[in-house]
């Protein structure tokens, strides 16, 4: 029993010692790396005693040297390297890079075929007792370089117009006995213009545009994800003879920001025994420089006739818009708009700008501020980059400053609604004046006199309109009603006396009751009343409210607009208008309504008195009866 306890104690003591003993680790398995490219071997030590910064020494057991040990590099002894490695260590091709006090990496900048063998990482002891492992080794196989990359056509450096399509082709392949993968990346350098890196600290002038990674997935660059998602940038792989792949990148419409030096980069990858992917070879091929000529440097918009145009009412108005400077080799979509601006005071410049008509990139014409113009005008594309706006019969309201506004979708003949506009430019303004005949309008409203208006009667209002002009004219009439402002009384108490001060009336907006258009069409705008409107004679218009209610009382006024006739027989709004005086309509109560009040009051009072008498008599009788039944 005692011997078993002793053995158990010795075993636990050994386990505890090993738990804190030194351990040196390197990547597992055999590593395959390509000749002519860097080799990086990490090595770490743990469970040691002594200083936090440990020394490391690297040995190589070459396959062609019969397993003889060769010193490669040491962190503590400059004379440690053997003769084959001394010049390479001296010029920095072979070195040790320290990640931390207990982690380093052996770096061979350009791997050679004779560098194949087993690499051992050794850590000199700083422990009080010698325990654990002080070295670890990993075999490295050097495979030949078979990575290929080429391009079909280089960029010439000639300026390319904004919106043009860019196609770059790059071929690449590998021929290796090992299972390796190839990735292809297209990118550009910004000709010395630095860009903030993702980390935020470093500055780089290289942008990765798009790539096919080692897992055959298409990956857009960080700054090109949106354009890739919109289909603006694509990358396609095509198989070629000899095991090569052809990779074609297309940019649907280049932008000024695409200016730069383009390159194609091929990378060979291998999966190490620890299941991690390692880059073992890489080649970059410059394709050439691209300069994008901005559309703003060449585009110009002109409109004609220029300056100021004066026409008689009814005359046709024809305006032409011409788009100049569009590159012929770029198929761009154009949104062409005609805008008209008139200030609120009638001035021909400044003020609010309204859309008259537009033609979308697919040729669809729509009308803006005046939909009735769709039948009295046209907008056409008469030639490449040349558009006309025609108003068959000009009206006074067509006066203003006209401008042609062109929005260009460079390289996108049929853009989606969400596609951003490349550039928008405007032409100089064309001032259009349409002379109309002098028109004077006057309006007077009156209420037909008769018995007092009572609930249920018909309200009859007359609007007499006078239009003074030469030539045919018609009046368009609107009837409006305002509520009668109530008289609000407010008492202000003071030590001397009470003063009654009326509040100012609260102004409410008018409500449109009915209208009679210039062509005789009547429009009723109220639903609560039975309303009719008609024309009694030339210049005399009547409004009737049948079976009027208390809600129909108020202040009525008529508004008149003068319409003239152009030489083609069409009617137009001359812009002349007038507002009549206000007529107050008050509804009185009917006789039966007045008699109903005392009748209701009298019946209610009689019922109350009767109930009170009956209650009093009944109460007294019951009390007397109770006294008679009480025993004496």
Task: Label this structure with key terms.
single chain; 632 residues; mainly beta; seven-stranded mixed beta sheet; 11% helix; transmembrane helix; Ig_sub2; Ig-like domain-containing protein; Ig-like_dom_sf
Structural class: mainly beta
- The percentage of residues in β strands lies in over 45%
In round numbers, the mean pLDDT is 84
Share in helix: 10-25%
DSSP summary, beta strand count: 44
Residue runs with pLDDT of under 50 for 5 or more positions: 9-18, 193-203, 488-501
Global morphology: elongated
Radius of gyration over all CA atoms, rounded: 49 Å
Q: What is the first-to-last residue Cα distance? A: 122 Å
What characterizes the major β-sheet? 7 strands, mixed
- Tally of helical runs: 4
Protein described:
The protein has 632 residues and is mostly beta strands. 11% of the residues lie in helices and 47% in strands. It contains 4 helices and 44 strands. The strands form 10 sheets. Strands 23, 25, 26, 27, 30, 31 and 32 form a 7-stranded mixed beta sheet that branches. A 6-stranded mixed beta sheet has the order 11-21-20-13-16-17, with no helix packed on it. Strands 35, 38, 39, 42, 43 and 44 form a 6-stranded antiparallel beta sheet that branches. The model is unreliable at 9-18, 193-203 and 488-501 (pLDDT under 50). It is found in: Membrane. Keywords: Disulfide bond, Immunoglobulin domain, Membrane, Repeat, Signal, Transmembrane, Transmembrane helix. Residues 36-137, 144-286, 297-424, 442-584 form the Ig-like domain. This is Ig-like domain-containing protein. It is a single-pass membrane protein.
